[in-house]
Amino acid sequence: MSAVKKIAVLTSGGDSQGMNAAVRAVVRSGLYFGLEVFGIQRGYHGLIHDDIFPMDLRSVGDIIQRGGTILQSARCMEFMRAEGQQKAAEILRERGIDGLVVIGGDGSYQGANKLNKLGIRTMGLPGTIDNDIPYTDFTIGFDTAVNVVVDAVNKLRDTMSSHERSSIVEVMGRYCGDIALHAGLASGAETILVPEVTYNMQEVADRMRNNFEKGKRHSILLVAEGVGRGEDIGKLIHELCPDYEPRVTVLGHIQRGGAPTPFDRNLASRLGDFAVRKLIEGESGKACGLVKGELVLTDFDIVVNTKKEFNMEMYELAQRLSQ
Amino acid sequence: MSAVKKIAVLTSGGDSQGMNAAVRAVVRSGLYFGLEVFGIQRGYHGLIHDDIFPMDLRSVGDIIQRGGTILQSARCMEFMRAEGQQKAAEILRERGIDGLVVIGGDGSYQGANKLNKLGIRTMGLPGTIDNDIPYTDFTIGFDTAVNVVVDAVNKLRDTMSSHERSSIVEVMGRYCGDIALHAGLASGAETILVPEVTYNMQEVADRMRNNFEKGKRHSILLVAEGVGRGEDIGKLIHELCPDYEPRVTVLGHIQRGGAPTPFDRNLASRLGDFAVRKLIEGESGKACGLVKGELVLTDFDIVVNTKKEFNMEMYELAQRLSQ
Amino acid sequence: MSAVKKIAVLTSGGDSQGMNAAVRAVVRSGLYFGLEVFGIQRGYHGLIHDDIFPMDLRSVGDIIQRGGTILQSARCMEFMRAEGQQKAAEILRERGIDGLVVIGGDGSYQGANKLNKLGIRTMGLPGTIDNDIPYTDFTIGFDTAVNVVVDAVNKLRDTMSSHERSSIVEVMGRYCGDIALHAGLASGAETILVPEVTYNMQEVADRMRNNFEKGKRHSILLVAEGVGRGEDIGKLIHELCPDYEPRVTVLGHIQRGGAPTPFDRNLASRLGDFAVRKLIEGESGKACGLVKGELVLTDFDIVVNTKKEFNMEMYELAQRLSQ
Amino acid sequence: MSAVKKIAVLTSGGDSQGMNAAVRAVVRSGLYFGLEVFGIQRGYHGLIHDDIFPMDLRSVGDIIQRGGTILQSARCMEFMRAEGQQKAAEILRERGIDGLVVIGGDGSYQGANKLNKLGIRTMGLPGTIDNDIPYTDFTIGFDTAVNVVVDAVNKLRDTMSSHERSSIVEVMGRYCGDIALHAGLASGAETILVPEVTYNMQEVADRMRNNFEKGKRHSILLVAEGVGRGEDIGKLIHELCPDYEPRVTVLGHIQRGGAPTPFDRNLASRLGDFAVRKLIEGESGKACGLVKGELVLTDFDIVVNTKKEFNMEMYELAQRLSQ
Question: Which residues are named in the active-site annotation (chains A, B, C, D) (predicted)?
Answer without folding.
Answer: 130
